[in-house]
Amino acid sequence: MFEIGNSLREARERQGLGYPEIELATKIRAKYIRALEEEDFTSIPGDAYIRGFLRTYAEYLGLDGDVYVDEYASRFITSWRDELPPRPERRRISTPDRHLERRAVLLVLAGIVLVAGLVFAAFRLPGSSTNVPGVGTKKQQQTAPVRRLVLRGVGRGTYVEVRRSRAGKVDLQGTVEAGETHLLPGSRFYLLVRSPAGIRVTLGGRAVALPAEHNLRILVTPRRTIRLSG
Question: Among 58, 94, 200, 206, which has the highest number of CB atoms less than 10 A from its own CB?
Fold first, then answer.
């Protein structure tokens, strides 16, 4: 077991990050970031938000978000459920009420069958269209958003190499100057960054935390950032 709040605060302070910068990159309000560091989970509206904020903030700092969510669940969810009021007793339905309920269900089912028959008949008519208004094709519905890696130079320029596989060809190589931006579509990249302080990196809109290490080698994916050796 470890202290969630202290661990997050120490990681933020080691990287010299302030609340406004984190709020801008993660879209999490600064007051909720402070609540996470103080383990004041009652200030965050709902368990789903707590888990989402915790995972996003931890991964922004270069930590394993799943570990922090699991620690939160093991320490706080049980006590939260113990405080829930007892479930109300279900009211028994009398025989006449059951009869009316059964009739209502049968009427609904009959209506569904009738509508389905009319739709089927409409599709079978000559010249009828198989396109239902408001419903796209399966291919259109399953189209996933395109992720991209964004490199933006800040401060002094820094040398960068970007590959899609560790031993693959170089997709981007050179010095990224201040104010310069490079975009690469994809969701998995291997980066060599000579000076991390001179560049800001995002993948799919999520800010990538770069440890302050000269000649930094990392693997960047939508879920996490992994520091590499060699």
Answer: 58
Cβ atoms within 10 Å, residue 220:
23
β pairing state of 158-163 and 148-153: unpaired
Q: Where are the domains of the chain?
A: 4-82, 96-130, 148-227
Taking CA 90 as the corner, what is the angle to CA 85 and CA 91, rounded to the nearest 5 degrees? Answer: 135
Q: Which of 175, 172, 150 is nearest to 161 (CA)?
A: 172
Radius of gyration, CA atoms only, the chain: 27
The percentage of the chain sitting over the pLDDT mark of 90, rounded to a whole number, equals 35
- Reference 63, options 195, 229, 228, 225; nearest CA is 225
| CATH, domain range 4-82 | 1.10.260.40
Res. 81 pLDDT band, cuts 50 70 90: very low
Residues 213 and 110: their CA atoms lie apart, in Å, by 69
Residue with the two structure tokens 């910068």: 21
Question: 187 Cβ partners below 8 Å, 6+ apart?
Answer: 147, 203, 204, 221, 222
Which pTM was predicted? 0.39
DSSP 177-198: -TT-EEEEE-S-EEEEES-GGG
